[in-house]
Design brief:
The protein is mainly alpha-helical and 205 residues long. 47% of the residues lie in helices and 9% in strands. It binds a DNA duplex (21 and 21 nucleotides) through helix 3 and helix 6.
DNA sequence: AATATAGACAACCGCACCAGA
DNA sequence: CTCTGGTGCGGTTGTCTATAT
């Protein structure tokens, strides 16, 4: 049950903050239905919402947008997140782009609350072992995944940074972005077939 | 039953990029 | 070229719920 929004003053304008109400959701959805999901500031105004455009956009992108998959992350999805995170790092929007119906916020939250802990746990387990790099044991699949050195680096936010970077999926990261073939089935097969690819991928990024 | 703690996730914030004036 | 508004992104915080004590 969402709390009633808190009204605060920001730049002399009163804005609602905090959880969205069903009524606000409805107003926002109606305006977006009419005008499309752009010009968020004017959408907020048209909807008569005391919300920032930014807040409206976020609400739409993470909650109201059609085809958003809610509920638990499946084992298959988790596996894909792990693999994509190894490849891309904390590029949540890119990772989410490969998981139909999932938002970057969902992926990020799932990573922070589930997967990062798993990884830390396994790092501790493997301290002192001969394996140099952290290991993640996916308990559900009994799978061991090696996280290569330097995977925690490269936190640049923009996609542009990858554009000149050679990539397994094409000459550039842009190819990776646009690759139609990179859908769920394709990637699942790809990762399945290329068992040793985990080790190789980081060499080229 | 009351309180404390942890987990989950929605929402906010600051920064960076881009396009148009 | 510079400025500004709009947008997208990742990091972080806040709050609700479930569970433990």
């Amino acid at each position: 049950m969402p709390m009633a929004p808190v009204t605060t003053k920001c730049n002399l304008k009163e804005v609602n903050r905090g959880a969205w109400t069903a009524e606000e959701d409805q107003k926002l959805a109606q305006v977006i239905d009419l005008h499309g999901p752009k010009r968020w500031k004017s959408i907020a105004a048209k909807a008569g919402l005391k919300r920032s455009g930014k807040s409206c956009r976020l609400r739409w992108m993470n909650y109201l947008r059609p085809n958003i998959k809610k509920g638990n992350i499946s084992d298959q999805e988790e596996d894909l997140i792990l693999r994509l995170h190894k490849l891309l790092g904390n590029r949540w929007s890119l990772i989410a782009g490969r998981l139909p119906g999932r938002t970057d916020n969902q992926i990020k939250n799932y990573w922070n609350s589930h997967l990062s802990k798993k990884i830390k746990l396994n790092e501790n387990r493997n301290k002192g072992s001969e394996i140099q790099e952290p290991v993640l044991d996916n308990s559900k699949g009994n799978e061991t995944v090696f996280v290569p050195k330097g995977s925690e680096e490269g936190t640049s936010k923009r996609d542009d940074d990858y554009n000149s970077t050679p990539c397994l999926f094409g000459d550039t990261m842009s190819d990776f972005h646009s690759a139609e073939a990179l859908n769920w089935e394709w990637m699942s097969q790809f990762f399945e077939i290329n068992e040793s690819w985990d080790y190789f991928a980081y060499d080229i990024i």
